[in-house]
Each structure stands twice: as structure tokens, then as C-alpha cells.
């Protein structure tokens, strides 16, 4: 059984930026457009960040109704990538 | 001495739980973490895998034998470092006297601050709640509460996962007597073997030994340590973040995926580790004049060092010295390499270069450092490292370089 599928594709994301949140990361992805499909997220499961040089990269794991998606947000060029898809529990 | 209240917070099965937090389909399943794909040593196991007897340090094939369903995943140290930093940020809000003990453990001395949080138990529950709300709902920790570090750490190991346990002066000896000698922090395998050799295999027996007897067999330092440990006495203070001592040495070690048989690839690895060590020293604004090199094959180990008259912080010079140290060694079949730079001082004490060639070299190094800081490690690297998988900086579980790491993380 596969526990994840690597994708690594650039995607379009609709996200909500909330500066008032106490969390380290204050971006909440709402939905994404991937391969002409609109996928809505209903929960942000996990966030982490790392730095490559001076560029901060955020990793966000979001749950939709059918699967979990790991997204990567480059804070310098503001581009999103779909890193991998993981099945739900 | 006023009675202290110390919390020991320990994230449960840290690396594995972090993976289960990220990927919910792994929750409830036995998970083992390898350092990288193709590695053979399990560096962490999930709570579910531990039930099958899988332990840290076990070979992957042994883990598979014990639990055929185990899911082996590569470690993601960037993720773990990020969680650690957020975990420390939570812990340090309860007291400025918060000691980062390792990547997943903190001691918090709340003697002065517990009244602001309605007592130690309320503090502990709040930490558990914040861990779930600020890091992830699958993250759990075990918390031990006691009047010293030794007993607080022992308390946190009593109930796992997600436990909370208090050791008071009344139950301290009872808990110690139920514990194995090796369960206590500060009593390692060497001391344990020596004690067992003398017929002392539990705490009641150790407590019966006089200080004179222990002194005769273990010397003045360890005898007092053992005498105190057996009685649950530990007066060591909790070391606050701001008082972490300066590094005494900088080193980088690496165990290879496979035996390195060609001299060229062994030298490449050595150069890579020299660059890593020198880079780290420069980032810490340090330079050193003691150079140590260790190489290990499946059969034999080699260790050598040089003490210089002048301080260095240059990877190439470090590599040249390592080549000198290893000149007479029959370098083949290498499995492990380690480079150390010791006798450190601040790099402002480095001699000012007088010759134009030395000045050029210094300028080149600082330019490369600036480029790598801006665009990422090894954007520019020595040509000797071409054609190899470059060993990059990463955190280690013991967080031995915590002063550097915490400053580094704070700046990110």
C-alpha cells in the first residue's frame, strides 16, 4: 500500500492570510486548482517552515474530503507547489 | 534551599509522531524512521512499532523481522527542527529557566512562576493542550514533575505516551526502587556494567553501599554521583537558554550508506566534512587550532589529531591537515568519517593577512559565505565535491550544538 504519491507540480491556490493567528504560519489555503479540478480544503493539519538561503519555504498539509495534500509556498516568489498527496486515515 | 518545582517535557516518539502528524494515513500504524532512503538503521520508532519491540538503533531488517508491517520512512530534519523550535517557544513561556535538553526534551524550572499558572499540574496540562493546538493534534508529550531534574526526567518516563506523573519526596524512593539502574539519566552502560560486576543491580542495593565503598571502586566523582542518584538527590540547576555555554569544539561526522573503497571518494567525503566543520565554525564566529580526524572501516578505526600554533577556519586548510594526519593510514573500505575543530576562540583573534594571496583567499571565502547564506548551502562549493551527494548541515537528536542551532533558528 502506498502512503503517499509525489507530485511536485506548480498549482494555483486560494488562501486566506490571517496575521492575527497565534500559529507560526498564518496562511490558510482554502482551495486549489489542480489539473482543472477544484479541490476545497476543510482543515489545515500541519505547518512547518524551512529556509533555503534567505528564502522561507512553508510546508502546509491540508485535508480535503477525499485526501490530504502537502503544499509548498515560496514566500519570495509567492508560488505554490503541490508536493504530494496522501490518503486519508 | 527552597523547594524547587521542575517539569521535564518529553515529546513522545518525536520523529515518528511528526511524520504521523504530517501524514494522517500513518496514524495508528507502526512507523520506523531511517536517516535517509537506502539507510539501514532505524533512528526512531512510533509508539505502535515500539509495541512490537522495535527500538532506536535497530537495523531495518531486524525491525522488519519483528514487525513485518512496519512502514520505513526517511527522516525530514528540517521539519523536526521547526517543530523543536516551536516546542521550545511553548516551554519557555512558563519560565525563563527553561533548558533545552535535546531535540525533543525540555526541563522547565517553574519554582518562581508556577503561581502565575495555577500550579504545576495546570502548567503541564496547558503545555499538552498548546502542543496540540499550536503544532499538531497528533503531537503528544509525557511530562514529569518533581523537585529536581533527575526525578523529573524519571517521572516523565513513567507513563508513555501522553503521560503526566509526579514524584514527590514521599514516593521518590519507591519509584527509584521500581526502576532499573539504566532508567535513570546519568547512569550509563559503563557504570551499570561495573555496578553489576560488583553484584549491585538495583537501587536498594546501591543505597546500601557506603560512600567509602563506592569511592574505592568508582573514584571520588562517580562515587558521590552514585550515592546521590540512589537517594534521588540532584542539586544541578536548570540551565536557561541564555546561559548555554559556548561550544568547545565543532565537528561533523558521517556514516556512509555503503563501504567507500576508492581513495578518491573517501577524500571527497573528508573534504565535504572539512567544509561542513569550517562553515559551521565560521557561522559561529569561531576558529580553532586543534584538528582531529577519525576514520572507521568495518574492521579497524583510525584516529589522529594535530595541534597548530595558529587558528584556522578555512575548509581547505582543514582538509590539507586531515590529509597529513591520514597520510600513513591504509585508507580503504571506509564506513565512517569525522572531522573536529577544537581549541576554539573568537574569529576576531585570527591573524590579519599580510600577503596579497592570503588576503585574496580571505576575500574569496567571505564572498562564498555571503553567496551561500543568500542562496542556500553549497550554492558555491569546492570543485572537488563535484559528482558526489553532498553531505549537508542537519540537526542531530542530542542537539549538541544547541547554542548555535537556537540562535540559527531564532534568526529564521
UniProtKB/TrEMBL annotation, chain A:
<protein>
    <submittedName>
        <fullName>Uncharacterized protein</fullName>
    </submittedName>
</protein>
TrEMBL record, chain B:
<feature type="domain" description="UmuC">
    <location>
        <begin position="6"/>
        <end position="188"/>
    </location>
</feature>
<dbReference type="Pfam" id="PF11799">
    <property type="entry name" value="IMS_C"/>
</dbReference>
<dbReference type="GO" id="GO:0003887">
    <property type="term" value="F:DNA-directed DNA polymerase activity"/>
</dbReference>
<dbReference type="Pfam" id="PF00817">
    <property type="entry name" value="IMS"/>
</dbReference>
<dbReference type="InterPro" id="IPR043128">
    <property type="entry name" value="Rev_trsase/Diguanyl_cyclase"/>
</dbReference>
<dbReference type="GO" id="GO:0009432">
    <property type="term" value="P:SOS response"/>
</dbReference>
<dbReference type="GO" id="GO:0003684">
    <property type="term" value="F:damaged DNA binding"/>
</dbReference>
<dbReference type="InterPro" id="IPR036775">
    <property type="entry name" value="DNA_pol_Y-fam_lit_finger_sf"/>
</dbReference>
<dbReference type="GO" id="GO:0042276">
    <property type="term" value="P:error-prone translesion synthesis"/>
</dbReference>
<dbReference type="InterPro" id="IPR017961">
    <property type="entry name" value="DNA_pol_Y-fam_little_finger"/>
</dbReference>
<dbReference type="GO" id="GO:0005829">
    <property type="term" value="C:cytosol"/>
</dbReference>
<dbReference type="InterPro" id="IPR001126">
    <property type="entry name" value="UmuC"/>
</dbReference>
<dbReference type="InterPro" id="IPR043502">
    <property type="entry name" value="DNA/RNA_pol_sf"/>
</dbReference>
<protein>
    <recommendedName>
        <fullName>UmuC domain-containing protein</fullName>
    </recommendedName>
</protein>
<comment type="similarity">
    <text>Belongs to the DNA polymerase type-Y family.</text>
</comment>
<dbReference type="InterPro" id="IPR022880">
    <property type="entry name" value="DNApol_IV"/>
</dbReference>
<dbReference type="GO" id="GO:0006281">
    <property type="term" value="P:DNA repair"/>
</dbReference>
<dbReference type="InterPro" id="IPR050116">
    <property type="entry name" value="DNA_polymerase-Y"/>
</dbReference>
Amino acid at each position: 500500500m502506498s502512503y503517499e504519491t509525489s507530485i511536485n507540480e506548480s498549482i494555483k491556490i486560494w488562501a486566506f492570510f490571517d496575521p492575527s493567528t497565534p500559529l507560526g504560519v498564518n496562511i490558510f489555503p482554502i482551495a486549489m486548482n489542480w489539473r482543472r479540478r477544484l479541490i476545497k480544503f476543510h482543515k489545515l493539519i500541519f505547518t512547518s517552515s524551512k529556509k533555503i538561503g534567505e528564502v522561507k519555504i512553508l510546508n502546509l498539509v491540508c485535508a480535503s474530503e477525499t485526501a490530504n495534500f502537502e503544499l509548498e509556498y515560496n514566500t519570495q516568489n509567492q508560488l505554490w507547489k503541490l508536493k504530494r498527496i496522501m490518503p486519508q486515515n | 534551599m527552597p523547594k524547587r518545582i521542575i517539569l521535564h517535557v518529553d515529546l513522545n516518539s518525536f520523529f515518528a509522531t511528526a511524520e504521523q502528524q504530517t501524514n494522517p494515513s500513518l496514524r495508528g500504524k507502526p512507523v520506523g524512521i531511517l536517516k535517509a532512503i537506502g539507510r539501514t538503521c532505524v533512528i526512531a520508532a512510533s509508539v505502535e512499532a515500539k509495541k512490537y519491540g522495535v527500538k532506536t538503533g535497530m537495523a531495518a531488517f531486524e525491525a522488519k523481522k519483528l514487525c513485518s508491517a512496519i512502514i520505513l520512512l526517511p527522516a525530514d530534519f528540517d521539519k523536526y527542527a521547526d517543530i523543536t523550535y516551536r516546542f521550545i517557544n511553548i516551554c519557555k513561556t512558563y519560565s525563563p529557566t527553561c533548558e533545552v535538553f535535546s531535540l525533543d526534551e525540555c526541563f522547565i524550572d517553574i519554582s518562581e512562576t508556577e503561581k502565575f499558572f495555577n500550579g504545576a499540574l495546570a502548567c503541564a496540562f496547558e503545555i499538552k493542550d498548546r502542543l496540540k493546538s499550536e503544532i499538531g493534534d497528533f503531537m503528544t508529550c509525557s511530562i514529569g514533575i518533581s523537585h529536581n531534574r533527575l526525578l523529573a526526567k524519571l517521572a516523565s518516563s513513567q507513563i508513555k505516551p501522553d503521560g503526566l506523573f509526579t514524584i514527590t519526596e514521599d514516593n521518590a524512593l519507591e519509584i527509584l526502587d521500581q526502576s532499573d539502574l539504566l532508567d535513570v539519566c546519568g547512569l550509563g552502560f559503563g557504570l551499570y556494567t561495573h555496578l553489576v560486576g560488583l553484584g549491585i543491580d538495583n537501587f536498594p542495593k546501591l543505597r546500601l553501599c557506603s560512600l567509602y565503598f563506592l569511592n574505592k571502586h568508582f573514584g571520588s566523582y562517580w562515587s558521590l554521583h552514585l550515592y546521590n542518584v540512589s537517594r534521588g538527590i540532584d542539586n544541578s540547576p536548570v540551565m536557561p537558554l541564555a546561559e548555554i555555554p559556548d561550544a568547545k569544539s565543532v565537528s561533523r561526522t558521517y556514516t556512509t550508506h555503503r563501504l567507500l573503497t576508492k581513495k578518491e571518494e573517501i577524500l571527497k567525503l573528508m573534504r565535504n566534512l572539512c567544509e561542513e566543520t569550517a562553515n559551521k565554525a565560521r557561522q559561529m564566529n569561531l576558529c580553532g587550532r586543534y584538528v582531529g580526524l577519525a576514520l572507521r572501516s568495518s574492521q579497524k578505526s583510525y584516529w589522529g589529531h594535530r595541534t597548530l600554533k595558529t587558528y584556522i577556519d578555512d575548509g581547505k586548510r582543514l582538509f590539507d591537515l586531515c590529509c597529513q594526519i591520514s597520510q600513513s593510514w591504509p585508507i580503504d573500505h571506509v564506513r565512517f568519517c569525522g572531522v573536529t575543530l577544537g581549541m576554539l576562540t573568537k574569529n576576531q583573534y585570527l591573524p590579519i593577512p599580510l600577503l596579497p594571496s592570503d588576503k585574496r583567499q580571505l576575500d574569496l571565502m567571505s564572498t562564498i559565505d555571503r553567496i551561500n547564506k543568500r542562496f542556500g548551502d553549497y550554492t558555491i562549493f569546492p570543485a572537488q565535491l563535484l559528482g558526489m551527494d553532498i553531505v549537508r548541515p542537519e540537526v542531530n537528536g542530542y542537539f549538541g550544538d544547541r547554542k548555535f542551532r537556537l540562535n540559527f533558528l531564532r534568526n529564521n
